[in-house]
Amino acid sequence: MNAVAGVLALDVGGTKIAAALVEGGRIVERRAFATPRERGAEVWLDAIADAAHPWRGRARAVGAALTGLVDDGRWSALNPRTLPVPDGLPVEAELSRRLGLPVRAWNDAQAAAWGEARFGAGRGADEATVAFLTISTGIGGGIVSGGRLLSGLAGHFGQWREGGDPSAPPAEDAVSGRWIAAEAASAGFDADARAVFDAAHGGEAWAEAILERSARRAAALLLNVQLALDPNRIVIGGGIGLAPGYLDRLDAALGGQPARLRPRLVPAELGADAGLIGAADLALTAISTAERV
Ligand code: BMX
Asked: pTM of the full predicted structure?
């Protein structure tokens, strides 16, 4: 049995990268920095390894939550606009080589779904299905059903196509933080998503209109998730999803639906830590299972 009990947790999003040391299911140390998007995957991996390096002696495994598709240890983009991940990057092997530890990787929202189902807003759902939807740079999602996390493409709700046209852009391209900022620019305002929320809170009609449109589209997505999975609850996360008033906007947009169709929306309890805590727990389980074989 390995005496070192900690796990290195990584959360790589389109906007920021977070690294943390997790011990006993809790984050004991952390650091975060902006994703150096334009500098490519080699730089992202080196930056991640540099951030995690000081904790190496205190961890027995690495759990990585990555924006994009993660299949059998390889990392690809589903929407390069969120982060232009090269196709099939062997991310588990590449990070393991840099850190000298076993690495397991999942999609960021899938890891967060597990974190919330086990330790957060999904607690107590037992075998029932818990869906997770995070609105941030893009829209991610995850599904925990029967006590298991569904992997691969399962939960990538932001990639759903709108309007019955398979060649339409992904749903997230007209909802997420990136779209909100682009709409502000179109309206003549140099504002990121946070500034748009501040402007709406300050009574600016242009900002409220943008958030209203984003929330209505997200609400339509949530209604479809409810019809597809009939989850016990849908946990809402992400910088946009948890921004002040956004959840109320989602509920208001769903208000006209019959009660049986209306999703039960709950805010993520682990906030921005859900992916880190989920990835750490998943990695610890995966590595411990492998050690027993
Ligand atoms: C995109 C997709 C998802 C991700 C979601 C949220 C890529 C690179 N990412 O839909 O895998 O979960 O964005 O990503 O294709 P985030 O960076 O906003 O957390």
From this structure: 0.94
